[in-house]
Design a protein that fits this description.
The structure holds two protein chains of two kinds. By secondary structure, chain A is mainly alpha-helical. Chain A is built from four helices and no strands. Chain A has helices at 2-27, 33-61, 69-96, 104-129. In chain A, helix 2 (33-61) runs parallel beside helix 4 (104-129) and helix 3 (69-96) packs antiparallel against helix 4 (104-129). The radius of gyration of chain A is 17 Å and the shape is flat. Chain B has helices at residues 5-12, 16-23, 27-34, 42-51; strands at residues 2-3, 61-62. Helix content of chain B is 50%, strand content 6%. The longest helix of chain B is centred in the last third of the chain and has 10 residues, at 42-51. Classes of the chains: A mainly alpha, B mainly alpha.
């Protein structure tokens, strides 16, 4: 039951992100590079998330747990990397303010997307590396 | 850490999927365990040992540099 809920929630989240992204792209005026970059990074994040959800679903269909001790360790490690990356990205964007002036919301986007990207890429690397 | 999971599993005629079901882990975890690319917790080592009907953990998992 818990596995079913986990898989269902992850599918709903991915679908919601895709819908939000579609509305964002449809409504965007596309004036500068960040306007293209943000949906592109978000799409990459969604693609990796879909891959992870698909792997979870495959295990779920076989009657196996969606999370086990290895994936829990991978989660924890990827979270740690994402946390450290968030601090460095925030620091980097603050330092870049002297050279590039971006609207404040772009800084938030960069921090959020950077954090998510680091989490998902770390997750995939750790997942395929074996030891976590 | 080396292990004899694949050898014992094949002797018992179990597939990786079936062993994963018995141990309640993802199939990939069994793959990585067999390849020696993941060191399990003591609890998981116990569950694998029991699923393979081995008598002791040392019969399945071998610490390299020791006789067993």
């Amino acid at each position: 039951m818990k596995n079913k809920v986990t898989v269902a929630i992850s599918i709903v989240i991915v679908a919601a992100v895709l819908v939000t992204l579609t509305f964002y792209v449809l409504g965007a005026s596309f004036l500068g590079l960040p306007d293209y970059g943000i949906p592109a990074v978000a799409l990459l994040i969604v693609a990796i998330a879909v891959l992870i959800v698909a792997m979870n679903y495959k295990n779920f269909r076989l009657g196996l747990p969606v999370k086990d001790e290895r994936t829990k360790k991978i989660d924890a490690k990827a979270c740690r990397y994402a946390f450290i990356a968030t601090i460095w990205i925030a620091l980097g964007t603050a330092m870049m303010e002297d050279y590039v002036t971006l609207p404040w919301r772009y800084n938030s986007y960069i921090i959020m997307l950077g954090s998510a990207l680091v989490f998902l890429i770390s997750y995939l690397i750790l997942y395929y590396k074996g030891s976590a | 850490m080396r292990n004899r999971i694949r050898e014992l599993r094949q002797k018992k005629g179990l597939t990786q999927e079936r062993l994963a079901q018995l141990v309640q882990v993802r199939r990939e975890t069994i793959v990585f365990l067999e390849q020696g690319r993941y060191n399990p917790s003591l609890e998981l080592a116990w569950r694998v040992t029991r699923a393979l009907k081995a008598k002791r953990i040392e019969d399945v998992f071998i610490l390299e540099g020791t006789n067993r």
